[in-house]
Amino acid sequence: MKLKLLLAVLLLTITHPGSAVIGQDAEPEQVLAESAVIGQKNAEPELVLAETELLASLAGGYTTIKQPDRAIQLLEETLSFNQTLANPCHKLEILTNVAGHYAFMGQEAKSSALFAQAQKILETTKYCEPKPTGSARNDPQNWVLVAAGRHARDGRHDIALRIATSFGDNYLEDMLQGLLYTYTDSGSRQPDRAAEIQLKLADYYNRTGQSDKAVQIWLFLVNYYNETGQPDRASELQSLASKAERTFNSSSASTQSRQNQAQIELSRCFAQKETNILLSIRTIVETLDPEQLRQILNICQEVEPAEQATEVSALTLKALEQIVLATQKIANPISRSRTLTAVANLYANVEKDAEAVKLLNKSLLTLQAGAANLPSDARYEASRALEEIIAGYLRIGQIAQALEVAQLVQTGKLNLAASDFSQVPVDSKFAYQSLMPPIVAFYAQTGQFEQALQLANTLGRGHRDEALRRIVEQYASKGQYAQALKTAQMIKSLEVQNKASVIYSIIEQAIEARELDWAVEATQTIEWTKQATQAIGETIDGATNESLNYRNKLLLAIAREYAQLRQFDRAIQAVNMMNSNEIGNYRRVQALSAIAREYAQAEQTEEALKLLEQAVEIARSISSPKASG
């Protein structure tokens, strides 16, 4: 279900590059750690920001236990820090955060006044720093999104949405997309919230004349609402999508717009049981001749939505057959191969595996025939096409064919660049090994872990580690956390992902599955600093700070889960395991606040009050020079 909510994000990022990273928050512990290194004077603004965020959050806790005066006191204390900050974006975040909390308290006049101040800063500030840089922290809008994202992750959904919608249409698209990414990326257990954001995005697109984007969202939410037992809502959205104006033949429409419209119509044709076929559809749209594509779209427009709820319609199969015929006119062998693979994926999506195999075989032959005459600068693109063929075979369980393809490269019968070395000549052995991690992952996915491990251990170090990482993912997805952890510790290093982050993800999944006792033990027994030093270029000091970050975040998640289970003593024990410098105190306050919230919901107000007071005291120490190490 989460995957399907992500599909609209994927479609939007195709037409709105960079939107998927909007709203990502820098790790607070990382910022605090860096601040500690550069010295107290320079660190103070970041420490102050951490303190104000925590105090405002704790104000929400007091509101929950019906102590509005105490909440207002903390909010006003938070606002007072603006007088000590020079950076307008720091002030922007504080104003936005506090405005959201006043809205939560029902004080609309105060909230609106603060949002107005924040909007003035947003409209008059080009960069957060004196000079433009590529850092997301230099974009004023991202500071608003950080505030909204934190509320979303902490369960204050109404505040998050209020923040995202309080700055007008000029900012609304990026705000909503940033908030949507927060929900989908954070592993939220409330996909209905992500759906709510998507509906607001669709409404925005529809009323601003971007009906193609609105239809994209409506069509994918139809599946979501059908799966969640809300057929009336699904029918309503299907009707909206069907009535939306489609202008494929408009001469005034840009090529990009026509392609977007085509992707929408093709997704409606082929998304019967799975909607994760967007990339295949995009390949088809980008490679087919416009006139042939128009013929296919004409067939698709005749497909009734009701037909998609049962078996594959004859019209859908006719459209697929037409695409196969159209591929014959694609001159470039790599493009023709990729398009054939894309159509094979669509056949697999409608459970026509025999047709899918035929097309994958044809795709491979096309690539082989063209490989002999490929210029050297096209071999990398060809290797990616080969990866897609292997993935296509694996998608329908054809492991023998996938291995045969890899062996063509190993024996030098298909001479391409390695997929992870753009246009760099490499030997056949290295190129072969670059293709193997997905095959290893298939064995693990099907429960053949011993075979997966044996195959991984035949690979060179970099590819072996990537294969092991994929085995780890499969162990964890099946709830075999101890085996996942054991396998992760076999990894030597990773080019892209820190080994410690792989271990972190295992324990995080165990926490989400509420295997809390095991997670506590694992968190305490891992030598985090040792694992973090194996990241490329990581220093000992950096690894130490990073290891504290991983450990504290896990303990925070554990404390929250125990509190939700009303195992308050265990939750407090997890808090006490955190370190007590400014790095650990940030998470400590968050944990105490979360436990207090659960106490309040259990009508144990006195206990909640004690924890909130303790948290306030710790929060106030973060920007103080006396904060202990």
TrEMBL record:
Keywords per UniProt: Coiled coil, Signal
Family matches, as InterPro entries: TPR-like_helical_dom_sf, TPR_rpt
Top-rank taxon: Bacteria
Family matches, as SMART domains: TPR
Keyword Signal assigned: yes
Coiled-coil parts of chain: 595-622
Keyword Transmembrane helix: no
Signal peptide span: 1-20
SUPFAM superfamilies per record: TPR-like
Protein name as it appears in the record: Tetratricopeptide repeat protein
Species name: Funiculus sociatus GB2-A5
